[in-house]
Amino acid sequence: MITNITLTTKEKFLLEDQKTEEQICIQKYANYANLAADPELKSILNSNKKQEEEHLNTINQLLSGKVPSMKSSQGSNSQSSNNSREESTGNSSQSSQSKASSGGFQASDKDLCTDLLMTEKYVSGTYNTAIFEFKDPQVRDVLNHIQKEEQKHGESIYKYMESQGMYSPK
Fold first, then answer.
1. Does the keyword Hydrolase apply (predicted)?
2. CB atoms within 10 A of CB 80
3. What are the sequence ranges of the domains in the chain?
4. Which DSSP string corresponds to 47-62?
């Protein structure tokens, strides 16, 4: 069921910011999936990109004055990550260290993951701010749902990095 809402000017500005951030996330995940050497990483990035597209659709609905009902897809992202880990070959750590290049840009899988992890930390923080700025509890719930999925994206990247020896929390 979709509920109609009237947004304040500030709420519209906050959603426009989130819309821009979601568009950048989609672009990064798509580009980095093409650059990634490891098939396991490609799978994680493509899965996260699909959820970012859902987030953008949700933000656009909010901007049009409609509050969508949220279905949880958090489990599908972690399931996809687990499936890709099981399917990956023993060469993943070797391939993840190779350099990917596109148009003169070179980055290792570790570089791609590091940038995406920083991006997810930032985007999650901006959702946190937005959640506190909205008066409608239904909208806050929707933004909270998206924020949790952003955190799951960061977690999937972190777990991948840790499993490949790219990140050590010590």
1. no
2. 19
3. 8-60+108-165
4. HHHHHHHHHHHHHHHH
DSSP state of 136: -
Q: Which CATH number fits domain 8-60+108-165: 3.40.50.720, 1.20.1260.10, 3.90.1150.10, 1.25.40.390?
A: 1.20.1260.10
**Nearest to residue 168, comparing CAs of 96, 94, 110?**
110
Q: Which residue has the tokens 């994680």?
A: 44
- Predicted confidence (pLDDT) at residue 80 exceeds the cutoff of 70: no
Instruction: Tell whether the model's pLDDT for residue 63 goes beyond 70.
Output: yes
Q: What is the pLDDT of residue 103?
A: 54
Instruction: Using DSSP bridges, classify how beta strands 99-102 and 105-108 pair: parallel, antiparallel or unpaired.
Output: antiparallel
